[in-house]
Amino acid sequence: MNRVAFFVRAWGAFAAFAFQRFRSLGGAVTLAGVLVALSFNGCASSGSSRSRDSAPVSGTVEQLHLLVTAVALDMDGKPGPDGFGARVYASSRKASEAAPITRGRLEMVMYDGTVKPAEMAAAKPLQTWVFEPKQLRALIQRTSIGAGYRFALAWGDHKPTQNRVTIIARHLSENGAEVVSAPGIVPLITN
Question: What pTM was estimated for this model as a whole?
Answer without folding.
Answer: 0.71
